[in-house]
Amino acid sequence: MEKTIAKALLSIEAVFLRPDEPFTWASGIKSPIYCDNRLILTAPEVRLQVETAIAETVKKEYPDCDVLMGTSTAGIAHAAIAAHILNMPMGYVRSGSKGHGRQNRIEGKLQPGQKVVVIEDLISTGGSVLEVVDALREAGAEVLGIVSIFTYGMKKGIDRMQEANVKNISLSNFDAVVEVAAENGDISRDDIKRLIAFRDNPSDESWIGG
């Protein structure tokens, strides 16, 4: 599944590799990879492939799930489509409480004790998705884990998940994308070492320029 989804993401440039012309993230980090999974929504064939994979992963990894909760905003559509496939309730968690009305942070009906799976599009260091997990736990939900579309597999993110005792299953990951890109001829085999060096230590820019 990891390589199949990687091939799909690369085909629509939802994941884009550019080791010789690095992107600059908001944090200032130079990166050979850029990910925009919102493009999945505008590509019907890939969208069906991804949402079906999310639904199948929920059924396989979290069979006791009662409700899906998307992250705001990127995970909302994916949670909604997967929940429709599964005939399951869904909601989403805001990045902060509303400043009006009932001032909800969690949108949709959620009962204390319900078993929840969080749907996220992208995980790097894990900070934002773990804030969602914390909000759901504070509301009394039992968070079974996360299903994400793509993860960079960075050590900081892996460590954070372990510390928070949260299971994450990603449909694809950095290593699978790099391998498929090399097979497609989009990058060279020599580029793989550079890309893995970035993944292992994003703050070390020695991979730039070969």
List the keywords:
7 helices, alpha/beta, single chain, 210 residues, globular, six-stranded mixed beta sheet, two-stranded antiparallel ribbon
Please describe what this structure looks like.
The protein has 210 residues and is α/β, with parallel strands linked by helices. The chain contains seven helices and ten strands. The protein has helices at residues 2-11, 44-61, 74-86, 127-138, 155-163, 174-184, 189-200, and strands at 15-17, 23-24, 30-31, 33-35, 67-71, 90-93, 106-107, 115-123, 142-151, 168-173. The strands form three sheets. It has a six-stranded mixed beta sheet, sandwiched between helices. A two-stranded antiparallel sheet has the order 1-4. Strands 2-3 form a two-stranded antiparallel ribbon. β2 and β3 form a beta hairpin. α6 packs antiparallel against α7. The two termini are 31 Å apart.
SSE layout and pairings?
Elements: H1 2-11, E1 15-17, E2 23-24, E3 30-31, E4 33-35, H2 44-61, E5 67-71, H3 74-86, E6 90-93, E7 106-107, E8 115-123, H4 127-138, E9 142-151, H5 155-163, E10 168-173, H6 174-184, H7 189-200
Parallel strand pairs: 5-6, 5-8, 8-9, 9-10
Antiparallel strand pairs: 1-4, 2-3, 6-7
Helix pairs in contact: 1-6, 2-3, 6-7
